[in-house]
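Lay summary. Proteins are chains of building blocks that fold into shapes, and those shapes determine what they do. In this project we predict the shape from the chain. Here is one chain we studied, written as its sequence of building blocks.
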Amino acid sequence: MRPGSFVEFLKIVQSAENIETFPDTPISEPKEIFEHKFTLPKHMRHLILSTMGHKTIVPKEFPVAKVKTIYFDDIEDTAFNDSLDGFVYKRKYRLREYVDTVGGARYSLEVKLRNDTKTSKIRKLIYKPLPKDYHLTTFRDLLDTFERENGFSLSRMRMGLTASELFMDTIIYYERYRFDDPYEDARYNLDTNIIVHRVNKHERRLKEGIYLDHDIFEIKSSVGPFGLPHYLRDFGIEPAAFSKFVWGKDIFA
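And here is the predicted shape, written in a compact code that computers can read:
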């Protein structure tokens, strides 16, 4: 069994005394969140998981998930170039699929807006799977399909779209471990085994996947910039201006 595996982490969850339930909500309102990311050497993964499992609150529901995230971009690569060029204001369009999830949402459809270190997100959690014969092409077609299949409106999300058509562009797979700070309004995520596939927009086919050579540790807080907790400061975790989408797309540029 490899270090930091799902099985080991779930053992920590089952034995932890500080478990608290954070219920899923089907709709989330746009809210400013401060995000900070750090790179983590893979060989430190097991130590981080063990430490976080005992120092934080481990959510009882979905403490760990396998995630497939599909990013969309226009033919001019606007979302990618805005991020690459360091624009303060940028947008991302994505569909997250929670693989092998039982009892929770199947997808999270998102328009993410970023202004410097602050982010806000228009998000809709979706529980009904897409039709088996559905072939993903554009973000607008995806909105149309979800509305038709589920009987709800995504008009607020459409307001966040630009005039340009958004095509399926980059696919990122990873395993996410979730933790909540017991004293502050902060969420910690550890993303591991991150692999990217690039989509050829014209031929609609995937290019061969490539693994990231490190893990990503992420802090999200609504109360302002939030640094590493004291018990992680000697673990070799380095601050990073990192985007999975930009990293993945840049590899195949």
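What the prediction tells us: The chain has one domain: 26-41+63-251.
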